[in-house]
Amino acid sequence: MAASISKHIVLHAHAIAWGHNKPSASLAVLIVESCPEVVVTFLTSASMLPRIMMSTLSLQITIDCVLDISGAILDPRLPLAGFELADAALQKGEAVTCRSSGKTIANLPAPTLGIIDPFTVYAIEAIRVIAKGTPILAWWTAPARALLPLLGPSSIGGMANPSIETLDGRAAMKAKIFARKEFEPYRCTGEALTTIPGLAPLFDYEWFPQMVRMS
C-alpha cells in the first residue's frame, strides 16, 4: 500500500463530540475515494473509534488508518492524551498503534496536511511545534449563526477574546478556565449579540446557558 502513496493527511476532531467527528469521517471517505494516492490517518479517542468506523462502512469505504490514541477519556477539557506523540511518530515514519484494536501503522510518508477541528487547539499547536511547515486546514461544519459569533470579528458580534490569538493568551485563558470551581452563569440582559447581514439578531439568552428555577 505504502509504495503507491504520495500524500498523507492527518485528521483529528473533538474527542467526545460526535457532531464534530461525523462530518470529518465523511470528508475522509471523500478524500480516499477520489484520491487513491492519499492516505488519511484519523487520530481519535476510544469512544469515537467505533462510531467513525461504522460511519465510514455505511458509506461503503474503509478508512484503514483510524486509530484510538487516547484510551478512556477522563477529562474532555484536557488535550487528548497521545496526540502529540502520535503526530511526532508519523512525522518520522515511525509506528503508531491503536490502543483499542492493537492495530499498528508504520512506514507512511510524513504528513503533508493536517485537517484539524479548531476546537482541538492543542492539536494545532502540536503540529506547529513538531512540523512547522505542515499546512493546517481548520475544519468545522457549522451554520453561520453559530460560527460567526464564536470566531467572527467584533464588528458583527464576534465574542472571541483578542488575547487568545497568541500562545501566551491561550495559556492564560486555559489556566483561568481550569481554575474555576463551579459554573458561572452568564447574566442575560436581552442584549443583541450579533448583527450579521441577512440574519435576524441573536440575543444573549439564546446563546448562553442559564440557571433554571426548579420550583
Question: What is the CATH topology assignment of the largest domain?
Answer: Rossmann fold
* Alpha-beta classification: alpha/beta
Ranges where pLDDT stays below 50 over 5 or more residues in a row are none
The largest sheet, given as strand count, sense and whether it forms a barrel, is:
5 strands, parallel
Total number of strands: 9
Count of helical regions? 7
Name of the level-1 CATH class of the largest domain: Alpha Beta
What is the H-and-E element order? Answer: EHEHEHEEEHEHHEEH
Number of domains: 2
Q: Could you characterize the architecture of this molecule?
A:
This protein is of the alpha/beta class and 215 residues long. It folds into 2 domains: 2-138, 3-Layer(aba) Sandwich (Rossmann fold); 145-178, no CATH class. The protein is built from 7 helices and 9 strands, in the order E-H-E-H-E-H-E-E-E-H-E-H-H-E-E-H. The chain has helices at 18-34, 49-58, 83-91, 121-130, 144-151, 167-178, 204-207, and strands spanning 7-12, 38-44, 65-68, 96-97, 104-105, 113-116, 136-138, 192-194, 202-203. A 5-stranded parallel sheet has the order 3-2-1-6-7, with helices on both faces. The chain has a two-stranded antiparallel sheet with strand order 4-5. The chain is globular and about 55 Å long. The model has no long low-confidence stretch (mean pLDDT 83).
In short:
The chain has helices spanning 18-34, 49-58, 83-91, 121-130, 144-151, 167-178, 204-207, and strands spanning 7-12, 38-44, 65-68, 96-97, 104-105, 113-116, 136-138, 192-194, 202-203.
